[in-house]
Design a protein that fits this description.
single chain; 289 residues; mainly beta; Immunoglobulin-like; 3 domains; 5-stranded mixed sheet; 56% strand; rod-shaped; transmembrane helix; transmembrane; Polycystic kidney disease 1
């Protein structure tokens, strides 16, 4: 009389598209027994004490074998996990990101299951998780290399992601010299990070209304009279609205030069005599000579 049936697999770790051997071990004796196997994946039943089977898909399956020796019968089942090898690992990040704002790294696999993910962020921080994404705040600006590793019981893979962390600021503004009055001038701000994500608030210093632009670091303005004006820009972060940066330039506005004349205080000079020249530009303004 059959008292027990055990199921053994070779190899112990099963892989998709790889053949595995399944063997029944009935007690007290394996002789004179008929075996029927079902693999839980919809495939036809198989007969024999030792059979080979290949799973086409990964996951958890219930393998059952029915044994019969004409005077007794019984059934044994075992839950098996079928692994898929890791392949085509890629990763990307939300970089460039502002200092103290979250940097998100997202990984993706072409194949693989039951994954343990490791994110080494390049600043000494290492995270291990079951999900293919990680959010991290850097405390120092700079360029970092993130190592993303995916591993399961049968395979592993890794890839690198470059991350840039910047201080939110206006780097410079152009043009920085003098501009001509009564002419439309295009001003541009050079900023850190994604320029198209920020909010730009411009003040021209000549009493004209302020201008606000979303995602556009350029603005056009006409100064109608010559002078020196304070061009001010308030920059608001597109990532963290509470983060702001201020920047200003003194804008020198001059009229268009229409005439310049050169005169002497007399018409004739002796050799070695100092000669004085007088230049006059029109219209009058604070020119550089």
């Amino acid at each position: 009389i059959l008292t027990r049936v055990d199921i053994q697999t070779e190899p112990q770790l099963l892989l998709t598209d790889k053949s595995a051997e399944f063997e029944a071990h009935p007690l007290p004796s394996p002789y004179g027994i008929h075996y029927d196997w079902r693999f839980g994946d919809g495939s036809p039943p198989m007969q024999g004490r030792r059979v080979a089977h290949t799973y086409a898909q990964s996951g958890i399956f219930n393998v059952c074998v029915s044994v019969n020796n004409t005077i007794s019968s019984m059934e044994a089942c075992a839950e098996v996990f079928v692994f898929e090898e890791i392949a085509d690992l890629t990763a990307k990040s939300s970089s460039p990101t502002e200092l103290h704002s979250p940097t998100v790294v997202q990984a993706r696999l072409g194949s693989g299951n039951n994954i343990t993910w490791t994110f080494s962020m390049g600043d000494g921080e290492i995270y291990t998780t079951s999900t293919p994404h990680m959010s991290h705040k850097y405390v120092t600006e700079g360029n970092y290399t993130v190592n993303v590793t995916a591993a399961n019981a049968v395979s592993s893979g890794w890839t690198l992601v470059a991350v840039q962390v910047f201080v939110f600021q206006v780097v410079r503004m152009e043009p920085s010299g003098c501009v001509q009055e009564r002419i439309l001038v295009n001003f541009q701000a050079w900023v850190s990070g994604n320029a198209s994500a920020h909010l730009y608030e411009w003040s021209f210093g000549d009493g004209s209304p302020n201008e606000t632009h979303q995602g556009n670091p350029t603005v056009s303005h006409t100064y109608w009279t010559s002078g020196k004006y304070r061009l001010f820009l308030r920059l608001s972060s597109g990532v963290n609205k509470a983060t702001k940066a201020n920047f200003f330039n003194w804008v020198c506005v001059q009229p268009a030069l229409t005439n310049i004349s050169l005169s002497l205080d007399k018409s004739h000079y002796a050799v070695g005599e100092k000669i004085s020249f007088q230049a006059r530009a029109q219209p009058e303004s604070n020119y550089s000579y």
